[in-house]
Amino acid sequence: PKAKAKAKGPAKKAADSDDDDSSDAPAPKAKAKAKGGPKKQKGAKGSLGAESLGTAELEAIVFGKTLSGAPRGGKLADEADGEVGLSSRPLVDGQKKRRKKDGGEVAKAASPSEDALGEGAGAAGKAAWADPDDAELEVDLGRLKALQRKDSEKKVNGEEYERRLRAHFVKVHGNHRWAEERPKGVGGPEDSDSDEEDEIPTSAKLVVGSESTGVGALKPNFCDITRRKEVEITPGAKKGPAVIKALQFHPTSELLLTAGYDKRLRFFAVDGEENPKVSSHFFKKFPITEASFTPDGDQVVLIGLSHQIGAQIWSLDVRTGVPSGVRPQTAQVHEKFHGLTMGPNTADSPGAKGNRLFSLLGDSGAVVVCDMVTKHPIRTLHMAAPGTAAVFSPTRDTLWTADKECNLYEWDLGSGRCLQRTKEAWATGISTLAICREGPYSPKSILAVGTSTGNVDFYDASGPKLSKEPYKSIDNLTTSIDTLRFHHSGEMLAYSSRFMKDSLKLVHASSGTVIANWPTDKTPLGKVTAVDFSRRAGYLAIGNERGRVLLYQLTHFERQAGR
Questions:
Q1: Does the N terminus or the C terminus of the chain have fewer Cβ atoms within 10 A?
Q2: Gap between the Cα atoms of 401 and 389, Å rounded
Q3: Residue 129: what are its φ and ψ, rounded to 5°?
């Protein structure tokens, strides 16, 4: 007699069926005819034999892959002889099958619902450290002077305390590229067919990077540099209207300012191809000697040779182009100002006091520290001899200055006290100063001292006190150093002298090695009067006595900015 086996259990709806009517209808009962013995069933659809299953179907059974073209919820075989048929429904990760021996009933673990997936995604995207109770906390800043914005500030809430801790950590240690999260789909091992090993994140300083991507530190002794179209002060002319006395890139863009004795301040949008002039501003009876962007880039401060009694400074709003003249109210009347120095960049030193200040060197060794908003002095410091240079520290709230007797001073910006005074033992005269902070490719903060004999001395400014002697001295030039400029990454230093033609050198800062392959004998530098690096795109602008601005592009920093 023929045996009939009926599938037990409730009928299951097809989840992904396109037909609503078929999803509401109960599933048909599977009928199977079984004969005694292990003989093959007659007329059974989709037999379980391997010859009737394709490669894709077998992979779906073994590895859980979805079958293309097979309807989800359909069946490949009916149940026969009490054995369970195979279903073409795709296997989901985590889905389990159970077989009941007595009834042949199959129970499948239901796949997660959309609501459950939504909740899981939301939980995964929520930061583990975000605590709403932080807003209700109060933290006493009585002993945490480094986190105070004002001397009178005593308590802050938990969220503000966390922000200040993060800002202080970045100020002290900097941003480490190895700790930054890599964007999804970029540079992952699945995106590359090469056999090269992936770079392991580390806090160690890289020495040499990949030439193909520009990742890593600058190589000593060599740099890949390309000349771009010159920034034309006067289009079509071989000589500019005046000596380039001031030259600087905007802190956050490729906007370049130039100024000189022709009393004009000009702005150029540097792109390496056209370099169009944006605007030009004339200052009557005010030959410009120095000009600089403020740390936020919203204004330009200028000093010059004023013919009036008492020194005067000018400022210009970059957005509106509106100038304003200021005569600083000081107890001492200064004949002229020089040594204009801006505070550190806000991106490099967030929260630093120097971001809101700039300094001027006056007569008789006076250092006038001015507020960025009012342009008026808030404190005057006095050195033992007439001042020659000044620079704000990017790592702490101090100001470095130098005088004609080769003394180096460090001043506290909060109290105005002199923290240390050091004699530059190897110099006969200090002409300029520059400083860089420690970073991913700069192991320490370096104070560079340009001397009147053409030497550039390196001091380690990371510690509380300077050493009595520099740890490195570079002596490639023989005339007084006029310009010292670090790239914002701290990897490269440019220095020059206007007293001799083609006197410009590039230095690998970490090793103190002069770049050997550039400039060459055919590089038309002339007598260099101003140098600056762009923060992005790797541009190097060079101004000279002929009133020309040469433009070059460093491939290493161009690739670094494009990462």
A1: N
A2: 6
A3: -95, 0
Distance CA 321, CA 199 (A): 48
**Residue where the block lists tokens 């300077």:** 466
- The DSSP call for residue 75 is B
Going by C-beta distance under 8 Å and a sequence separation of 6 or more, which residues neighbour residue 185? 191
Q: Give the whole-angstrom CA distance, residue 212 versus residue 555.
A: 11
271 contacts: CB under 8 Å, gap ≥ 6? 254
Q: Cβ distance 413 to 364 under 8 Å?
A: no
Pairing verdict, β 138-140 and 155-157: antiparallel
Tabulate helix, strand, coil % of the chain (nearest 5). 10, 30, 55
172, amino acid identity:
V
Q: Tell me if residue 559 falls in helix, strand or coil.
A: helix
Token look-up 């902070």 returns: 437
Strand partners, 255: 269
Provide Rg for the chain, Cα atoms.
36
562, amino acid identity? G
Give residues with Cβ within 8 angstroms of 190, minimum separation 6: none
The pLDDT tens digits along the chain (563 residues) read 344 444 444 444 444 444 444 444 444 444 444 444 444 444 444 444 444 556 667 666 666 555 444 444 444 434 334 443 444 444 444 444 444 444 444 434 344 444 443 444 444 445 556 677 777 788 888 777 778 877 778 888 888 888 888 887 776 665 554 455 545 444 444 444 444 444 455 444 444 443 333 346 888 889 999 999 999 999 989 899 999 999 999 999 999 999 999 999 999 999 999 999 999 999 998 999 999 999 999 999 999 987 665 668 999 999 999 999 888 878 788 888 999 999 999 888 888 999 999 999 999 999 999 999 999 999 999 999 999 999 999 999 999 999 999 999 999 999 999 999 999 988 999 999 999 998 888 889 999 999 999 999 999 999 999 999 999 999 999 999 999 999 999 999 999 999 999 999 999 999 999 999 999 999 999 999 999 999 988 999 999 999 999 999 999 998 776 55
End-to-end CA gap in the chain: 78
Alpha-carbon distance 244 to 241, whole Å? 9
Label residue 381 left, alpha or beta by phi (over 0 means left) and psi (-120 to 50 means alpha). beta
- Which of 430-457 are b and which e, b meaning 16 or more Cβ less than 10 Å from the residue's Cβ? bbbbbbbbbbbbbebbbbbbbbbbbbbb
Indicate the SS3 state at residue 503.
coil
E-assigned strands of 219-276? 225-231, 244-249, 255-260, 264-269
269's CB contacts (< 8 A; 6+ apart) are 254, 255, 256, 275, 276, 278
